[in-house]
Every structure is written in C-alpha cells, then in structure tokens.
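FAQ: What does the model actually see?

It sees only this:
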Amino acid sequence: MYTIPVNGGAEKRLTKGGFNDGPEYSPDGKYIWYNATNSGLMQVWRMERDGGEQTQITENRRNNWFPHVSPDGKRVVYISYGPEQLEPHEHLPNMPVELWLMDADGENQHKILSLFGGQGSINVNSWAGDSIRFAFVSYAILEDPK
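And it is asked to produce this:
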C-alpha cells in the first residue's frame, strides 16, 4: 500500500510483504484500515496513516476482507469467508459469506448475518451518516430458463 499527496509528489510505501488490500481511512484520518495475509489467512489490520503501528485486529480461522469504519468511528463491519472456501488472497463472488461487526478497538467481534454474495457485497464503505445502518449486496443466482 502506498500514499501520495493530493497535489502530486513522491509516493510513500506503507506496507511490505504479504497481500495487502482494501485500504480505507478512519473518519478522523488517524488510521488506515485494510486486510492483509501477513499472518497466513486474510485478516483485518489497522495502521497509523504514516504506516506505523501496523496491528492485526482480527485473528480467527476465517478470511476477513474490506473493513469499513462507521462515520462515528465506533464500529467496523467486514465480510468474512470460511477458511476452506478460497485461498487467502481470493475474494470471490457467488458463495455463502458472513458479515461481521466489531468495535473499532477490535472488541466484541460477532457475526451479524449470513448471506449469499461475496466479492462485491461490501467492497466500499456504505455506512449511513448516522452510523446506525449500512448497505450491502446479497443476491441469488437464477437458473437459466432454457
């Protein structure tokens, strides 16, 4: 992952090694949330905006992707794949997944919903401004009517 000033200039590398993806600034701009394979499976991480203090937030036997921080900075929602569903660097569509919620300090991690979806279900931050709800995509694959 890299940062670059909005007015141009040199890019700055923030992460090294592993597969890193899905960066998103916290609402206060102090942190960048992302997912990485640094510990084997894909997990949620957080670092200071300059790349310092890279901290693994989730640590379980699932592949966790796309952490999105609520506008009030108190909660984080992310999508989670079972460990046998895919390789850690993959985030595939068309499969059963789960949405998980946790406090911004990593406490109180819990599943809130099982759904059919996957890549594309919650790739971008879709929290409502009031930090009470968020949008996501769930779908069904329709049979070919031939």
